[in-house]
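Need a sequence for this fold. Nothing fancy.
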């Protein structure tokens, strides 16, 4: 199966993303080992992002920079947490303790009025992400083969029970595009 230009572009993008994820994992592993010692493996992270940074990221389409991160690591079934705030790394009991007052810090500019009283929203949004260190992206050829199988299943699904099933199988079926 010959990959299409879209398959090649998708494979290239997936490879870029996998490289970035691997670099983020290695950085987290370095933080974890520097605080907890060898053998602990990062499995996930909680991170706080300022609302201004979220808006900047949405407008530009770029990645959000976190204000603080708590990495959860595991060794022999025991989970421990490492807070990374600025240049400081330290062990903490949970992500709540790691973020401390930042977790519920009021935003000085954002909020709403409720029953005539101003109510501030939190300054930071809380996000969670897992680490997948063994991820290997599909090649363009693998993506092309998967696309062919997916399209064949679509043709068979449309032809099954249809009065003109044989014609659909011979000519193929192009489903209506969803609102994208």
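Here you go.
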């Amino acid at each position: 199966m010959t990959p299409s230009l879209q398959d090649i572009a998708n494979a290239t993008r997936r490879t870029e993303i996998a490289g970035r994820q691997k670099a983020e994992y290695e950085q987290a592993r370095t933080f974890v080992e520097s605080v907890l010692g060898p053998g602990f493996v990062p499995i996930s992270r909680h991170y706080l992002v300022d609302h201004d940074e979220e808006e900047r990221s949405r407008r530009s389409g770029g990645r959000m920079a976190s204000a603080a991160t708590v990495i959860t690591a595991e060794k022999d079934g025991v989970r421990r947490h490492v807070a990374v705030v600025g240049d400081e790394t330290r062990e903490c009991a949970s992500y709540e303790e790691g973020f401390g007052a930042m977790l519920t810090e009021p935003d000085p500019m954002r909020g709403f009025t409720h029953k005539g009283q101003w109510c501030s929203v939190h300054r930071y949004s809380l996000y969670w992400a897992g680490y997948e260190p063994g991820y290997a992206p599909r090649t363009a050829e693998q993506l092309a083969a998967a696309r062919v199988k997916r399209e064949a299943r679509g043709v068979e699904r449309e032809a099954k029970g249809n009065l003109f099933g044989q014609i659909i199988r011979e000519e193929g079926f192009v489903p209506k595009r969803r609102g994208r």
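For context: The mean pLDDT is 90.
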